[in-house]
Write a structure and sequence with these properties.
The protein is α+β, with helices and mostly antiparallel strands. The protein has helices at residues 2-5, 18-25, 46-65, 76-79, 84-99; strands spanning 103-105, 109-118, 124-132, 137-139, 154-163, 169-176. The strands form 2 sheets. It has a 4-stranded antiparallel beta sheet with strand order 2-3-5-6.
């Protein structure tokens, strides 16, 4: 998970109008361009978008708890729910921990998930997450803890989700939120 291993939009695609191109090649004047359709929201409202984002985050956390640093095949299900710099950082961190013989035990738990921002067509969602990592222990190959003694038990995070081209919500970024603290249980 990004918080553990880091030392502690919308997509628009351009299209060439076939009718306009054909008219230009034929030497005729171009017909008015067809209107570009407005993207249809995948969700009816922001509550549905928040629910999808939360389902993604909870699935990600479940998969995180199933990661075995000795078995790289357990990483891919985790990466399948992320994108962008978030995924890239996780790939690098987990590969490095695997190469160095680290072990990770304990469970990460979603303490709370609150949707903060989403606007039609709901391709980007931002949520506040309180993530309990108090039982997670990461040891190097010599059995020395790699967890900072200053690590908080619960992280306050702002998590950004983006819709992929298959209509799935993916975790794209997670940043500490110092302004909205989480309570330790």
């Amino acid at each position: 998970m990004a918080v553990i291993h880091r030392h502690c939009f919308a997509r628009w695609s351009g299209a060439i109008s076939i009718a306009t191109s054909a008219a230009l090649f034929a030497g005729c004047s171009a017909a008015p361009a067809a209107p570009v359709p407005t993207p249809t929201p995948t969700f009816a409202n922001k509550e549905e978008a928040f629910t999808a984002a939360e389902e993604t985050y909870r699935a990600f956390t479940k998969r995180l708890n199933e990661v075995d640093l000795a078995d790289t095949s357990t990483f891919e299900p985790l990466f399948d729910l992320s994108s962008g710099a978030f995924e890239k950082a996780d790939r690098k961190a987990y590969s490095q921990m695997h190469a160095e013989g680290y072990t990770m035990t304990g469970e990460t738990k979603v303490q709370s998930f609150t949707g903060k921002a989403a606007s039609p067509p709901y391709e980007t969602v931002i949520a506040h997450v309180c993530l309990d990592t108090s039982s997670v222990v990461v040891l190097d190959s010599a059995g020395v803890s790699q967890v900072s003694p200053d690590r908080p038990d619960v992280y306050s995070l702002d998590v950004t989700f983006v819709m992929d081209d298959q209509g799935r919500m993916l975790i794209d970024a997670a940043e500490k939120n110092e302004e909205e603290p989480c309570e330790s249980e």
